[in-house]
Amino acid sequence: MNQTTYRNGEAATLGGPEILVISGCVLSADGDMGEGELVPPEGMQFARNAMYGIPAAARAGGYKKCDILETLLLRGNMTPRIGAMAREACDAAGLPALRALFDRIGPFVDD
Predict the structure, then answer these.
(1) Terminus of the chain with fewer CB atoms < 10 Å: N or C?
(2) Are 73 and 21 spatial neighbours (Cβ–Cβ below 8 Å)?
(3) Which candidate, 25, 29, 28, 4, places its Cα nearest to that of 15?
(4) What are phi and psi of 87, to 5 degrees?
(5) Domain ranges of the chain
(6) From CA 86, how far away is CA 65, in angstroms rounded?
């Protein structure tokens, strides 16, 4: 789990599925989050690492829908189905693999 804050200042705890979906949103928008807000280069790199690292761990855990999930995420049209698939992928990857991935790529940080 990673700690971040919402724009209203409330704390939020994000797990692998949430980070995967956010990473897909960031990459599908090419870092343009609207209203002149651009994701910095280190955020883009984190999104790329998470977007490809989480599905790689899920594949290793036996998840068969990674190609579909990646395609849907990069299209940027987020739906409940994508959220459910992200959770399935992270469940298949397993907590030890996700922890190892985030140890390698660093924490999700939102200032």
Answers:
(1) C
(2) yes
(3) 4
(4) -65, -45
(5) 14-31+38-105
(6) 10
Rounded Cα–Cα distance for residues 76 and 96 (Å): 28
53-95 pLDDT, tens digit each:
999 999 999 999 999 999 999 998 789 999 999 999 999 999 9
**Closest to 25 (Cα-Cα) out of 87, 79, 100:** 79
Residues near 63 by beta carbon (within 8 Å), at least 6 away in sequence: 55, 88, 89, 92, 93
- How many whole angstroms separate alpha carbon 103 and alpha carbon 111? 20
Cα separation, 70 vs 47, in Å, equals: 13
What amino acid is encoded at 94 in this protein?
G
DSSP string, 38-102: B--HHHHHHHHHHHHHHHHHHHHTT-S-HHHHHHHHHHT---HHHHHHHHHHHHHH-HHHHHHHH
